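Q: What residues go here?
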């Protein structure tokens, strides 16, 4: 199963993509995670993209498409993948179409998580991430605790989750990524909107039902 999960920053797509990927035993390919790891490891790419990410802007299409190409080349994505945070521009969607065509593959579904603006800001400003294992949680759950419930690593706020940067990320999403809704709606794969409000498990169930309705198992 080859799936793209679209959604604004804070829509829950990382959490939901991880759950879907585990359920279907395919890799979750998150360009945000790949780029953050490059920044943390201070690789050549990491040094190039750090300032752009910190400002909440988009990294160049070439860099991101190369990173995804690399991942898709690996044997673990032969059975499929859940793409999380990619594509984010029309050029990236075109790049993905070329990559898949070269492999005689196609997307099975493009899902879009729908969440209100108010909820996005609340989720992002309360988001905490484990420095060690990348576990994502919310201050609503952990309060002021600084310890990861999974691995006891340190919970921190992503620097691009600070409110000034968040506004920028939402504006960038509106301008560059929202056009993908129409792009995929017009494509043979189509676009399936899924209500992203509510509890994590019920949102996951909605996504799985949507996939079943599309005949994707
Ligand atoms: P995310 O974790 O998906 O919110 O991504 C965090 C940041 O990484 C974004 O604000 C961008 O700076 C960068 N990024 C992640 N995915 C992409 C992408 N597909 N294209 C360009 N930049 C990206």
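A:
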């Amino acid at each position: 199963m080859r799936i793209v999960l679209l959604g604004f920053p804070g829509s829950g797509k990382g959490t939901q993509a991880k759950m879907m990927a585990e359920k279907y035993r395919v890799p979750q390919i998150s360009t945000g995670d790949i780029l953050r790891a490059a920044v943390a490891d201070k690789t050549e790419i990491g040094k190039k993209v750090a300032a752009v990410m910190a400002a909440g802007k988009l990294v160049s299409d070439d860099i991101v498409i190369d990173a995804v190409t690399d991942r898709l080349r690996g044997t673990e994505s032969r059975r499929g993948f859940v793409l999380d945070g990619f594509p984010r521009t029309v050029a990236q969607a075109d790049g993905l179409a070329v990559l898949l065509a070269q492999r005689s593959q196609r997307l099975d579904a493009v899902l879009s998580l729908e969440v209100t603006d108010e909820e996005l800001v609340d989720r992002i400003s309360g988001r905490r991430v484990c420095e060690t294992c990348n576990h994502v949680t919310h201050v609503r759950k952990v309060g002021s605790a600084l310890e990861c419930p999974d691995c006891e690593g340190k919970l921190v706020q992503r620097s691009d989750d600070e409110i000034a940067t968040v506004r920028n990320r939402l504006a960038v999403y509106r301008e560059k990524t929202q056009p993908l809704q129409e792009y995929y709606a017009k494509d043979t794969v189509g676009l399936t909107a899924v209500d992203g409000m509510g509890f994590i498990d019920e949102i996951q169930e909605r996504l799985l039902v949507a996939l079943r309705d599309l005949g994707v198992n």
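A: Context that may help when evaluating the design: The mean pLDDT is 94. The radius of gyration is 17 Å.
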